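The record is given unchanged here:
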Amino acid sequence: MRNIRLKQVIYRAEANIVAIISNSLVHRTPKIATLKSVKAEILNVSGRLGLSPAETNRMWLDAYAMYQKVSKKTFSALRKIGYKKQEEVGYKETLQKRQNATYNAVHTVVVYPGNLEKMKNELVRAVEQREKHDDLFHPASGLFAYDRASPFFICSSHAKPAKDHADWEGKLYFNQDWLDNHQEDSELARVRRIIAARKLVSVQEVTGPPVYLVTRPNCKHFFIPVEIDEVVGHSNKQLLREHKGYMKDEEPISYEKRQYRAYYDRLKVLEELKSITPSEELDKDLKNTRHLMRIWANRARPQRK
């Protein structure tokens, strides 16, 4: 659910940025005013998601580059068709020409190559990676808190792990700080017996050098808290099954699903543009995009035998 919310919030912000840029070019808003509005949108989403300065700056650089490219493409198209000021030919005619030129520029620079989808996914991955590290390893997160009833954690198992992490995944680990701070002697003795019998390694040993399990950038592994009673009499494989620790997220998405998602994202951007600069050409593109979405959705569904 967190992944879905992240994508929704970031997508909405980037769609709003596209809309701000499009609207400013159609209505000839000064560049400084446009970029201030873009920056305000970025700061808003940054505050909502708690983005780091580097992630916020990344959004800003992407948005600024988008503005530069769309603006250049728009005015290049207007020059080619012999664009004239509204004082010479009238407001409606110039507005229509700016609308068409801006829409075509956005379509060429943003929608068709899938740049919005790419920027969104890159930012989502960066935020998720940072949050995973914060949630799992920061002392204030509570995951390794001393008042947990159990010191045990099972590490997730993935379809295609990094070669140097393959031998460390799917195993049971314990939090050594729990042993130093837990107060009940009977439970402490019980835990020590389990650790000795199963020859367990602590999470502190594997999350630091030279292994860096989970803490290394781009590592997809994560720890799942396990209760003491669950550890007794259960193998690592049984614990992974019960806690859904077997992950299949590395399996490639089919070509059909990628095509459907590309047209879905394109549809959302086109709908945003229509709310600002409606046109017959845009309506045709929306209709065509919906048609292509249906085609690829049918192809992506499992075929019945």
About this structure: The CA atoms of residues 190 and 196 lie 10 Å apart. The first strand starts at residue 152 and ends at 155. The chain has two domains: 2-127+253-300, 145-247. The chain has 13 helices and six strands.
